[in-house]
Amino acid sequence: MSRSAISVFDPDRSPLPAVVHQLDFADHQAEVPLHVHRKGQLIIALHGAVTCTTGNEIWIVPPNCGVWIPGGVSHSAHATSNARLNYLFVEPGAARLPDYSCTLSISPVIRELIDRLARELPDYPADSHAARLARVVLDELADMPHEQFNFPISDHPKIRTMAEALTNEPADRSTLNDWAKRVAMSERSLARLLSRETGLTFGRWRQQLHLIVALRELASGQTVQNVAFELGYESVNAFITMFKKALGSTPAQYFKKRIAQIHSS
Predict the structure, then answer these.
(1) Are residues 141 and 110 in contact, defined by beta-carbon separation less than 8 angstroms?
(2) For 122-147, how does the pLDDT look when each residue is reduced to its tens digit (9 = 90+)?
(3) pLDDT tens-digit profile of 8-27?
(4) How far apart are alpha carbons 38 and 241 in whole angstroms?
(5) Three-state SS string across the chain, please?
(6) Which domains does the chain possess?
(7) What is the pTM (predicted TM-score) of this model?
(8) What distance in Å separates the CA atoms of residue 58 and residue 54, rounded to the nearest whole number?
(9) By the 8 A CB rule, do 97 and 63 touch?
């Protein structure tokens, strides 16, 4: 049987400011159970996709981005079977990175430098070329822009119930009024609760989930037609319209652009 990804490498054994470990999920279990590191962790998808859960948010790692999880934050993950990932582990205080989880846009140069560090042993000398590369990576990451590829899920039991149901069945097209009846609230009260707990309207909240699922499934090799059906859209065009409105390009254009950016480096 394949092993859990967290059983093969312990980043906290290294005192270095930054170490990188690469994992191919063809050789490991897709589910990474809840765990925590002393070091912060940046997850970059080289191929395929991974979905991470930290506290009250679900994150997708799309192409040309990385999910940053600070040290001490419990998290779990689910990777597609074709996922190949680089994990950059950062010693607390070694870089000006946020103290909260977020998605960072990763430039092609920094992506390649992190991939280069993945070929170094986790005990490289502090005065080595690898150490200098690590310093450049950490300095540059502090200036990378943030992206919104998260789905807030909240600790509130009624919002949590809705989030779990929708993540299990993203094609569910129940209205806010339908959900209000299920959780024994008025529609207005549920709308206020959802806005307070997630910062989003119901429609925007569900759309954010659809984007998370779509990016994950498209990165794993699913067709646009299959993804549109999985998310309950009446037509492929309706799904493409939602995707383009949210991300500024069609699914084909989105992935073509990011693949080109990766290869151009």
Answers:
(1) yes
(2) 899 999 999 999 999 999 999 998 88
(3) 889 999 999 999 999 888 88
(4) 42
(5) CCECHHHCCCHHHCCCCEEEEEEECCCECCEEEEECCCCEEEEEEEECCEEEEECCEEEECCCCEEEEECCCCCEEEEECCCCEEEEEEECCCCCCCCCCCEEEECCHHHHHHHHHHCCCCCCCCCCCHHHHHHHHHHHHHCCCCEECCEEECCCCHHHHHHHHHHHHCCCCCCCHHHHHHHCCCCHHHHHHHHHHHHCCCHHHHHHHHHHHHHHHHHHCCCCHHHHHHHCCCCCHHHHHHHHHHHHCCCHHHHHHHHHHHHHHC
(6) 5-147 (2.60.120.280), 155-264 (1.10.10.60)
(7) 0.81
(8) 6
(9) no
Beta bridge partners of 23: 85
- Model confidence over 223-258: pLDDT tens digits? 999 999 999 999 999 999 999 999 899 999 988 876
Residue type at 46 in one-letter notation: L
Q: Which residue has the tokens 């897709």?
A: 30
